[in-house]
Design brief:
mainly alpha
Length: 431
């Protein structure tokens, strides 16, 4: 059981401060974490993969990530009388106190900070798109300023004390993600298949096609990346031996995954069917008209990434604040919270303003950090803790996920790096 100082600290930290969440909180948070801006890049990923591999990889990603999510929900309370409230606590349970931290924390931080940077860029670019559509002849304003406008909202929202206190923002974000996904595929369907549509590979050379394939893998990995905050979401649900938290959590996850399927598959397949290999890396850019719909969809994206930013930032705040109090012996106070969170928002905003390559960043982070934490780290932990019998179904399933996940981690960043280099050739700082 936890000691008195530990209990006081947990009552102050944002993840464990409030444990009265309902199953639908879990559904909102999971939808907000999962259905990210990545969904708008899925038709572009399909254009790199083609129909056959594209459909197979999309369906496999959905099944594998649902399986690894189930594993994490199951492992949250596998130690009697103890809750593993954070991803790194699960890692420590499997690999020991020191190694567990080193295995999980760098990858989890890379994902969460990476997502926050990418969402700063997405929020800023969507605000810019609204401005350009509303007033095409107005004075040009640089993307940098729009990222600053978007970032300024987070200086306020990041001061909310706990995960449960952002539930309303998360609910709004979940509704928005469903709305803009629906706009994306419904407007594409309404536009109809373009006369010049082609489904051949985008690149003419074999090496170009190979790199594009790798890039697409990373983009799909990024789209299925809600696992980094799963245990933290489950930590907010009350739990007793009679009513463990995994039941309401799993119900929320199932609802979230049905929504994910209803958002992802129509956007990916309809978008590719309509625009073929000419589709942009953000489907909303391909749909230039009608203007009011594009403005609405981009406004929904902005509201959604506001919520998503917070869902991914809370575990980072929790980690930083926990480190400062436990290791650096700071006193838990409002001043500490204000300083750490404001600095973090400022840092992600600065990096986003400096490197706003949206598509390449998605794929790079997708392969490098999301593949491990989403596709195979839960399987390795499962094998380490439960030790299923060799050649049993559980053993085979986990090893297949691990092999596919490792391949994804190696291949996706290669394609993304090439794309980043190509994009950065004509890039000007703070343009």
């Amino acid at each position: 059981m936890e000691t008195q100082p530990e209990k006081q600290l947990n009552d102050w930290l944002p993840i464990t401060k409030s444990r009265n969440a309902k199953w639908w909180y879990s559904a909102f948070h999971n939808i907000t974490a999962m259905v990210g801006a990545g969904v708008l890049g899925l038709p572009y990923a399909m254009a790199h993969l083609g129909w056959g591999p594209g459909v197979v990889i999309m369906l496999m990603s959905w099944v594998i990530t649902l399986y690894t999510l189930w594993q994490m929900v199951e492992m949250h309370e596998m130690v009697p009388g103890k809750r593993l409230d954070r991803y790194h606590e699960l890692g420590q349970e499997a690999f020991g106190p020191k190694l567990g931290l080193w295995v999980v924390v760098p990858q989890q931080l890379m994902v969460e900070v990476g997502v926050n940077i990418v969402y700063m860029v997405t929020g800023g670019k969507s605000l810019q798109k609204i401005y350009d559509t509303v007033c095409p002849n107005c004075h040009h304003i640089r993307t940098t300023f729009f990222i600053m406008i978007f970032g300024s909202i987070h200086f306020v929202l990041s001061q909310l004390p706990s995960f449960n206190s952002i539930t309303f923002i998360s609910f709004a974000a979940a509704v928005m993600s469903i709305s803009y996904s629906t706009i994306a595929w419904a407007a594409s369907l309404h536009k109809g298949v373009q006369p010049s549509v082609k489904y051949s590979p985008r690149s003419s050379s074999a090496s170009g096609q190979t790199f594009d394939f790798f890039t697409a893998l990373g983009e799909i990995a990024f789209a299925f990346a809600g696992h980094n905050v799963v245990l933290e979401i489950q930590a907010t649900i009350p739990s007793t031996p009679e009513k463990p938290s995994k039941k309401p959590m799993w119900l929320g996850v199932i609802v979230a995954y049905i929504v994910v399927a209803l958002c992802y598959f129509p956007v990916a397949f309809v978008g590719y069917w309509v625009f073929g290999n000419n589709v942009d890396d953000n489907i909303l850019i391909s749909l230039e008209k009608p203007a009011f719909l594009i403005i609405a969809a981009n406004a929904f994206v902005v509201i959604h990434v506001i919520g998503s930013y917070q869902v991914f930032a809370v575990p980072v705040f929790d980690m930083i604040e926990s480190f400062l109090v436990k290791q650096m012996h700071f006193k838990p106070s409002l001043k500490l919270r204000l300083t750490t969170r404001t600095s973090y928002v400022a840092l992600t905003m600065f990096i986003a303003m400096t490197f706003p390559f949206f598509g390449g960043l998605l794929s790079f982070f997708g392969g490098f950090a999301f593949a491990p934490t989403t596709y195979y780290l839960p399987c390795i932990i499962w094998l380490a803790i439960y030790k299923p019998k060799r050649f049993s179904l559980s053993w085979f399933t986990n090893w297949i996920c691990i092999i596919l996940g490792v391949l994804l981690m190696i291949l996706a960043p290669i394609g993304a790096l090439r794309q980043l280099i190509l994009q950065s050739k004509n890039f000007k700082f703070y343009s």
